[in-house]
TrEMBL record:
GO terms for biological process, alphabetical: DNA integration; DNA recombination
Keyword tRNA processing: no
An example molecular function term from Gene Ontology annotations: DNA binding
Annotated TM spans: none
Keywords, comma-separated and alphabetical: DNA recombination
Name listed for the protein in its UniProt record: Integrase
Length: 222
């Protein structure tokens, strides 16, 4: 729905500019384009969250202990590390490369790529184990980019290529609980049922991290 509304806004802006161009025979106001309304949100806050299913702590460790190799192993390791570190994929390269300020044996600080703010990160034992695993020899099957000028494009490419991959890995891990959630398609609400592994993607990692921290007593703003 958000994508549709953003496209409508962009299209209206383009047509308004076309209206001002004398060389283009188009009248925005008489065309009726201004009468096209955005799609209204019909779902409640709870219904919007019904599709956002975080992994449990048990599932994270089940995933980490899964016997994998090659690309599967690397995709799984990055995914688990994100669940335990709470960082976007665009910030993972600097963590794997060791480009951070070490505060103590269990805590580091990085500059967040998206906001340029400082983030203090606690290194859970498994997350630390994964970072150490790739700090020396890097990745053999994944392109985890370390060039800040290319990170945004590379991050999108990484997400696009690995989302289906992580779904398959989670299916093999047995994450097949049936999830019922509500979707809005146009002006109608629809109830959908899917297996949990079908709903898992890269962005689930941050939701998982926040959920884990809340269960440990931390506030979301922290």
């Amino acid at each position: 729905m958000t994508t549709i509304n953003n496209c409508l806004s962009s299209l209206k802006n383009i047509l308004r500019k076309a209206d001002k161009e004398k060389s283009i025979c188009f009248d925005f106001h008489t065309s009726g384009c201004d009468k096209v309304e955005k799609v209204k949100a019909l779902r409640s806050k709870e219904e919007k969250k019904s599709k956002q299913i975080p992994l449990t702590e048990t599932q994270i460790y089940e995933l980490y202990n899964l016997e994998l190799s090659g690309r599967d192993e690397e995709v799984r390791d990055v995914f688990v590390a994100q669940c335990l570190l709470g960082q976007r994929i665009s910030d993972m390269p600097k963590l794997f490369a060791g480009n951070y300020k070490k505060i103590d044996d269990h805590t580091v600080e990085i500059t967040v790529q998206k906001t340029q703010e400082q983030a203090v990160i606690y290194l859970f034992p498994v997350a630390k184990e994964i970072l150490n695993k790739y700090s020396l020899n890097g990745f053999k099957h994944l392109n985890i980019n370390t060039n800040p000028d290319e990170q945004e494009d590379k991050s999108r490419e990484y997400v696009r290529k690995t989302d289906d991959h992580i779904k398959k890995i989670c299916k093999n891990a047995g994450f097949d609980e049936e999830i019922t959630y509500t979707e809005q398609r146009g002006s109608k609400k629809t109830t959908v049922k899917k297996k949990q592994h079908e709903l898992i993607h890269t962005h689930v990692t941050r939701h998982t991290f926040i959920t884990l921290m809340c269960k440990m007593g931390f506030q979301k703003k922290q």
